[in-house]
Each structure stands twice: as C-alpha cells, then as structure tokens.
C-alpha cells in the first residue's frame, strides 16, 4: 500500500538508488527529474536530466528501470528546438521502437511523432477558444498548420466548411494527414505542402489563421509593464477600438502591439488591392508566458475594404 501511495518522483529515485547501490550520490540525485511529459505509454524526459557520465555506463538497464518506475513502455529525452524555420524538436528516443503517440484535446485526436514534431499542451486554452468561434459555412486558410493544432478545432467543433492547411515540415504534414483521417474530416481539408509565402490562393478565405513574430524593435518601442508607472495593467479599451473583449484586462504594451499589427496589415491590404481597407481589433488573448516579458498573444482582426 505504501508503494502505491508513493509519489512518482520518489518512486523513481528509489528505483535508481537500488539500481546503483553504493554508487548513489547526492550529485546523481540532483540529476534525477522531478517532472516529465507523458503521452500515453511514452514519457519524455527533460534535457537537464541524467547528464552525469555514470548514467551512460548503466546501459539499457537504466532506461528500463526508469520506464518501470514511471509506468511507461517507451522513453525519450528532449533537447533544444533545432535552429531553422521548421521548429523541429531535438528529441532522442531512449527506449522503444518509434515515437508515435496519440493525444486527445477537447475530444480531438492528435497523433504525431514526438521525435519529429512539437506539441504544446500550453495552447489548450486557445484551441478551446478557436473551437467556440462561429465559423459555420466558412472557408479558412491556416497558414502554419503543423499537425493540425487549430485546423482540427475549426473543422471538428467550429463547423468550418473547408480548410486550406499550409505546412512545410514533411513530418508535420504526415501527422496532419493522419489526424484528419482520425477525426473524420479529411474530405473538408486540403493540405498545401510547402512554403506558405508561395501559396497560390486568392479570394477564397472568409478567415485566415496565421502566426507572426514581432520584431525586436517593435517590442523595444512598446516597453515593459514596469515602465508604465502603474501596476502594469490597464482597463481594456473602449468598444470603438477593441470589440468583443467582454471586459478582459490587457496590458498597455499588448494593446500597442495589437494596434501596430492592425495598422501594418491594413497598409499591406491597401497596397495589395489598390484601395483603402479598414482593420478592426475584435479580441486580444494572452495565451501563455514563455519568460518574463515574453508572452504568447493572439489577435483577432476583422479586415474589410472601405
């Protein structure tokens, strides 16, 4: 009974201590992870764990011991995201034959290879919000589809009529194909494999889902919460400037980012179509924080010709 009540982290330490016997030390104990990511029977360990040379000397017995202690059949270890536009993970499979896993979010099934594709549980709030959007009958273009993080909520829950899903990572495309079939929506989606900047789609979308990374200069101009001379937050702007926010509170620099982005897209649309366009900020959503003053924000923007 005591073993069943034992915390997983403590159970792991006890199993490793038994494996190493007299070789066990405080240094090795600090190398044992306290948390990990689980995908079914596969556990992904952090890159900071098991770095001492003595661990490598244990061979396969080490990973078999870890898997048994954590109730897993497969193990992998995460590294840093590889450089380049693909945002491919650096994940090494330690135990098992492949890295394919299945994850369920809000009734949607996602399958992917953890050694080839990234998956962020922290985006669940935004997936839920996307799933609730009124997209019935709409045609969408998802410019950075990945394995279908948002393509699938649009199709499964938001009732989009059709989605053009654009993705240039071949591993993500393979996962996306499987996920469309898993969720029975493959007939309402076309995958465009390649660079979205070369995509030849025009006048087809009611809604476009895209990602953008602000330039460092833009962030420098916006400043940080401490520089606002208050508690770092401000009441949400009036309905004229930001509609549909339902009284949410956003930071002043987030609002400035939204306004700058709206102005930039308005200018791009005007230049592209040769006539004036209007952009209206509908919603600003703070999804998560990566680090102090580094936030994942989402902007809903309505764009119409004037």
Automatic annotation (TrEMBL):
Residues 233-242 have a biased composition (Basic and acidic residues). It comes from the Eukaryota. The keyword Lipid metabolism does not apply. GO terms for molecular function: tRNA 4-demethylwyosine alpha-amino-alpha-carboxypropyltransferase activity; tRNA methyltransferase activity. SUPFAM superfamilies: S-adenosyl-L-methionine-dependent methyltransferases. It catalyses: 4-demethylwyosine(37) in tRNA(Phe) + S-adenosyl-L-methionine = 4-demethyl-7-[(3S)-3-amino-3-carboxypropyl]wyosine(37) in tRNA(Phe) + S-methyl-5'-thioadenosine + H(+). Keywords: Methyltransferase, S-adenosyl-L-methionine, Transferase, tRNA processing. One of its GO terms (biological process) is wybutosine biosynthetic process. GO terms for cellular component: cytoplasm. It holds the Pfam family TYW2_N_2. Its EC number is 2.5.1.114. InterPro entries: MeTrfase_TRM5/TYW2, SAM-dependent_MTases_sf, TRM5-TYW2-like_MTfase, TRM5/TYW2-like_N. Gene3D superfamilies: Met-10+ protein-like domains (3.30.300.110), Vaccinia Virus protein VP39 (3.40.50.150). It is an enzyme of class 2 (transferase). Residues 36-305 form the SAM-dependent methyltransferase TRM5/TYW2-type domain. Pathway: tRNA modification; wybutosine-tRNA(Phe) biosynthesis. Residues 214-249 are annotated as: Disordered. This is tRNA(Phe) (4-demethylwyosine(37)-C(7)) aminocarboxypropyltransferase.
